[in-house]
Amino acid sequence: MNHVLINGADNAPNRVLLTHGAGAGMEHAVMNSLALGLADEHIQVIRFEFPFMQKTRADGRKRPPDREPALLDCWREMATEFAHPRLFLAGKSMGGRMASLVADELAPAGLILLGFPFTPPGKPDRFRGQHLATLATPTLLVQGERDNFGNREAVTGYDLAPGVKSLWVKDGDHGFSPRKSSGTTLERNLTAIVAGMRRFVLAR
Question: Can you tell me the mean pLDDT for 44-64?
Answer without folding.
Answer: 90
